[in-house]
Specification:
Strands 1-2-5-3-4 form a 5-stranded mixed beta sheet, with helices on both faces. It is built from 5 helices and 5 strands. By secondary structure, it is of the alpha+beta class.
Amino acid sequence: MEALLSLARQAGFSQLTELDAAVLNPMPEVRDMCSADRCRSYGKSWSCPPACGSIEYAARRISQYRRGLIVQTTGELEDEFDLQAIAAIEARHKKAFLDLARQARLLFPGCLPLSSGTCSLCRKCTYPDRPCRFPGKRLSSMEAYGLLVSDVCQKSGLPYYYGPKTITFTACILTD
């Protein structure tokens, strides 16, 4: 775990902490929020519902792990509608997490990286017409696995909200 923590620190995440996988509780209600399609990825990506598997599948996968790491990228906004800053902070987080997930998969084969938002490896996902181009690199989100991110953070002793004019992106890597 120390190697993973060190890699996460080097990646420049704003906050990070270990997590006990026993606190993870995949909830159908969270998965149901995906079907509202507010992120416009539902049914359009191999990493999102319904293609990423059922909530029961997610619960089985998560139950295989004992511990993990939560990482966050927090940034400041001029106001709550600062879409340019939000996009830049999200891009920074996704890039850092993609690199961390790649390194974690080398150190801990079989680990489960769960990102924030849909997978962004490909400009356009092949779903549903062709198989995923990169199934070994694909990243599903914490929400796609039914995890309420604020709850996972709180149970791990990590804040979820850092005050007005901030935004935080959260991801995790589960290991055995």
